[in-house]
Write a structure and sequence with these properties.
The chain is α+β, with helices and mostly antiparallel strands and about 675 residues long. It contains 24 helices and eleven strands. It is about 55% helix and about 10% strand. The strands form three sheets. Strands 1, 2, 3, 5, 6 and 9 form a six-stranded mixed beta sheet that branches. The chain has a three-stranded antiparallel beta sheet with strand order 4-8-7, with no helix packed on it. Helix 5 packs parallel to helix 9, helix 7 runs antiparallel to helix 9 and helix 18 crosses helix 20. The chain starts with 7 loop residues before the first helix and ends with a helix.
């Protein structure tokens, strides 16, 4: 067992902290009672002895990985129902909190086989199903009496949803839909749990009725027999194989051959097919994309900030314990966190995690507002939400994956160990870069919204909140640079607005020279990507600023959060200094002041670095890291984990007698 005493360097770091760590934790949670509720929830789930690994997951075979994931998932989802009853909480809300707190990934470390059931199947039934379909499916799904997945992506089509090849043709004689996978590329590919875990799927397919194609719609299909678990007639199904990570998720493939389902198995909240095949179109086709928007919002809310905060907690604590080289000859080796280069790697990532936490809260509130408006028949806010969910998912997952890699590198060789948990956090983070929309495509979807917004500006129409800066970004360039938060925030809007304007003009110039709109778009697509990213970063900085102004906490916390806000503004500006020199009121002579601000922020944050990551309140069971534990006993934990390797069970491995010994003898 590891001794429970706290490492002396971590104790010293915590004594330097200038603010009340618990107060900041309460702020992140939303209040004292919310912190207490979260901790009770963590206790309920994390300390169940049935979740304890007998053998570290990295030593299991592919099949054992999946089977252990299923075992834990069954226990986990039974406990969800139990917790929902204890707290009188909606089960979907419990699932959301499991992800938001990091509990789910702490228990099943490489993707829950039931994850898509709770994250997509249930929300799709709820948001896209009519009331009579809720009665038929929702309670069964909530009680895990059926397990579902969401089968949208195909072998040959991903983000381009309109190009999906799976067909669903209505037969009015039998009042059934006939589903088919007409080509090899139309095989459904990637859905989590599809391989062996789920017996139902919401299949996204092209609807044909009365001889006409009606676009993509969602259909509930039973894919496995509930008793034998054998594939249903006409169903070809399997797992897609080993991946870079998330090997418990049981991603699968699905092909359909003349699979018949009842008419009411089409989700019909927005669009309907009547008994005679008459098609009643949705008031807005974008309503059918609600599940995807929801998932992108969840990725930003539950993954981006959380993974960054986990990685920075591990790296910062390790940097306080690890001592290396010499700063002054003859003195004790310093903590590696005393090196400015280490601070430069890690402290901006603390700020970045916090920035995405703030913007995720804003996005979640926006999503709930839009959902309420949709229930009242108002779709006006949906395009703006879709555009922001797209770019925040794309830029956020990129920043998170890059940040986790930086944290791993900052931990040197020990960060390469599975026991650091940094490799696993990275695989989970980078997976989010490609699911629910490939990031390049998502940024281009945001760009389409931005081009429409700029066109509305030219027509003199009102603009939505997130693009309202297009009304005044040019005027901001007239003021002198001051290296203040307000000035730097305005500069981000100047850069974004200028890039959007440039793209709009380039597209129109190309069209005036004879290109079609699509051709002009493609020739401008690199700059469109950069405009979307600039727009996203401007909004993240803006939300950080607005959140800082609204914080009702002690002056000590305000001071350190302000330093983090200044740090991220300075670093992001310096990372793209060419853009700021070209498009904002920044002059070459002003650049040293930004560098000075950044370096000064590193010095000011240094005494509070450990306190900041402590305030994230991530339990050792969630971090699951030899390097990042609260007590800082890094070396003891590394040795203990090393001894769990199956190769250490015997002093001599059988390969010696089989291979090494004959090999050595043959060379004598």
């Amino acid at each position: 067992m590891i001794k429970q005493t706290i490492n002396e360097d971590l104790l010293a770091e915590r004594s330097k902290c200038t603010f009340n760590v618990e107060e900041l934790t309460n702020f992140f949670d939303g209040g004292v009672s919310e912190t207490e509720s979260r901790r009770k929830m963590e206790n309920f789930f994390l300390f169940d002895p049935r979740f304890k690994d007998k053998v570290p997951m990295e030593y299991l075979s592919h099949q054992e990985h999946y089977e252990e994931g299923i075992r834990k998932s069954c226990i986990l989802h039974s406990k969800v129902n139990e917790w929902a009853n204890i707290t009188n909480t909606n089960r979907i809300q419990v699932y959301t909190e499991l992800w938001n707190c990091g509990i789910a990934s702490a228990i099943v470390k490489q993707g829950i086989p039931f994850g898509v059931h709770s994250a997509m199947f249930l929300p799709a039934l709820f948001s896209q199903g009519a009331s009579e379909q809720h009665n038929q499916w929702l309670e069964l799904a909530l009680n895990n009496a059926i397990l579902g997945t969401y089968a949208q992506t195909e072998l040959g089509h991903g983000t381009f949803i309109r190009g999906l090849e799976t067909t669903s043709t209505y037969d009015s004689n039998t009042e059934e839909f006939i589903l088919n996978s007409p080509t090899q590329t139309s095989y459904k590919w990637w859905p989590g749990g599809l391989g062996h875990t789920c017996n139902y799927a919401i299949v996204v397919a092209q609807l044909y009725t009365q001889g006409k194609i009606r676009g993509i719609h969602q259909f509930v299909v039973q894919i496995r027999d509930s008793e034998t678990w054998m594939p249903m007639p006409g169903i070809k199904i399997g797992e897609i194989g080993s991946k870079f990570g998330m090997n418990s998720a049981n991603n699968g493939y699905l092909a359909l051959n003349n699979v018949r389902i009842p008419r009411m198995n089409m989700l019909m909240k927005n669009s309907r097919v009547l008994k005679d095949g008459t098609y009643e179109k949705s008031s807005n086709q974008k309503l059918n994309y609600g599940t995807m928007v929801f998932m992108r919002v969840l990725i930003v809310k539950n993954l981006v900030a959380n993974y960054l905060m986990e990685a920075t907690t591990i790296a910062v604590r390790y940097s306080a314990v690890r001592r290396q080289s010499e700063l002054r000859v003859g003195e004790r080796e310093p903590q590696i966190m005393d090196y400015q280069t280490q601070q430069y790697k890690l402290f901006p990532l603390i700020a970045t995690g916090l920035a995405y936490k703030f913007v995720a809260n804003w996005l979640w509130e926006a999503y709930n507002e839009v959902t309420s408006e949709l229930d009242r028949g108002n779709v006006d806010l949906l395009p703006e939400l879709h555009a922001m969910a797209c770019c925040l998912k794309a830029v956020g997952t990129y920043d998170a994956a890059t940040g986790v890699t930086t944290c791993r590198l900052a931990c040197g060789g020990h960060g390469y160990m599975h026991s650091s948990n940094l490799p696993n956090i990275y695989t989970l983070t980078t997976a989010a870069e490609i699911y629910e929309g490939e990031n390049t495509v998502l940024l281009l979807q945001t760009a389409r919204y931005l081009m429409k917004a700029y066109q509305e500006l030219q027509r003199g129409n009102d603009l939505a909140e997130t693009v309202s800066y297009l009304n005044h970004y040019q005027a901001l360039k007239q003021s002198a640079w001051t290296t203040t938060l307000e000035c730097m925030t305005n500069a981000f809007f100047q850069v974004a607005g200028s890039k959007i304007e440039n793209c709009y003009k380039l597209i129109n110039h190309s069209m005036n020279n004879g290109l079609s709109y699509d051709e002009a778009w493609n020739q401008t697509s690199i700059q469109l990507l950069k405009a979307s990213e600039a727009h996203c970063r401007a909004w993240v900085i803006n939300i950080f600023m607005m959140s800082l102004k609204k914080m009702q906490v002690s002056a000590e916390i305000i001071e350190v959060i302000t330093q983090l806000c200044e740090l991220i503004c300075a670093q992001w500006t310096l990372n793209s200094v060419g853009d700021f020199l070209q498009y904002s009121n920044l002059n070459v002579s002003d650049v040293p002041s930004i560098q000075n601000l950044m370096e000064n922020c590193l010095k000011l944050i240094r005494p509070n670095a450990v306190g900041l990551v402590d305030s994230f309140d991530l339990r050792d069971e969630i971090l699951n890291s030899t390097l990042g534990s609260y007590d800082g006993n890094v070396y003891e934990r590394l040795l203990q984990e090393a001894n769990k390797s199956p190769l250490n069970k015997n002093p001599v491995n059988k390969s010696f007698e089989l291979y090494l010994k004959p090999f050595l003898k043959s060379n004598m």
